[in-house]
Amino acid sequence: MGRADADVQAVKPMVPSLPGTHLVHVGRQPIFDRDGEVVAYELLFRGSTEAVEAGRQDTYATSQVIVNTFAEFGIGEVAGGRHCFINLTREFLTGELRLPFGPKHVVLEVLETVTVDDEVIDGITNLVDEGYRIALDDFVWGSGHERLLPLTSYVKLDLLDGDLSHLDDIVADIRRHPGVQIVAERLENATHLELAERYGFELRQGYALSRPQVLSTASLSPSRLRRLELLGALSSSDANLEAILSIIASDPALSMRVLRVSNSAASGSPLRVSSVRQAVVLIGLAQIRQWAMLMVVDDVAEATEDQMASALTRARLSQNLAVSMGAPADAAFMAGLITGVADLLGMPHADLAQQLPLSPEIAAALTRGAGPVGRVLRAVEAYETGALSELSGSLDLAGQFIEAVRWSAHLIGATKAPAS
């Protein structure tokens, strides 16, 4: 990675960091083909918008990059359909930590710090059999990483600090493996570009072409206790779907992450979800378990209870009103939850809706206020803003609101972590 981790251009977040939220970040540096077209991005750990270096390259860093990319931004927002190169530590390569995403659109980079032994080779062989593509980062002949060439799709050569005295031999050895593309990295001047052209390297990356950027967005974090509670429920030999759904639905931020991950799972599919249940079924309990594990590794600050309660109360009130207004209760709960989370993040409801694989009914409700669910949301908004003249006199909103407040308070109180 080297200088790809330094002197980063920051992309200012589109939304402010509000109380109860925090900014999450991911760095990305373009990878170009011979014609100068961006064909992929390398994803980099960043702890802040202003960070000029990764700071760490451990399991935490890898976990945070994965969680932020797939569950906060959404892979489509970060990559736009292009491949993403993701650096992996030994724990992920050997299968000790399972990857919570499929092989589509990702390339797994083997860090130069990973010692290649039989366990690593077996783990990477399994990943390749599952359809993942492998890249060797900062490749040095004689480091042991040449043992992975038969399993590799990409080899990255450092043209700034790498040993170029045997470049002819190294390139010749790599070319003995059909299908392996060479990525010339750390191209910082015209000499490096000429060298990449002379050797016919398929892909190029470096300051001479583009510096990394830091993408930032506001996020509402799932509570630490609910992550652990979810992981415990998923770890049971007879995992109870209803219990798992209850845990996920009780935490607005966790629900949003599940929905964003389901968006990645549904990529290229016409399937759109209309409930948290559908999202969980689409992803599968095995992958939900893997995401829960990564969220424990990626432990960050909790949202405030008041703001969690606000989002949950709106979702519950929407659900309560749904039956009398001719709307599906599950769809109304999800729509209310999404509007609550969007408000916490300072985002327009429609903008957040566009990041999620929602059914046409919910999407229309959030973007245009259309349909039965849209009528529910308008009624809830009118009640919250005091626009009582817009409400039907037959609706018992005061009673339903009090029930929703009690429900959300009970839910949060039942799962509140002790002070530490």
From TrEMBL:
Residue ranges of domain HDOD in the record: 220-411
Ranges where the EAL domain occurs: 1-226
Record-linked InterPro entries: dGMP_Pdiesterase_EAL/HD-GYP, EAL_dom, EAL_sf, HDOD, RNase_Y/CdgJ
Top-level lineage group: Bacteria
Name used for this protein in its record: EAL and modified HD-GYP domain-containing signal transduction protein
Lineage: Bacteria, Bacillati, Actinomycetota, Actinomycetes, Micromonosporales
Gene transcribed to yield this protein: yuxH
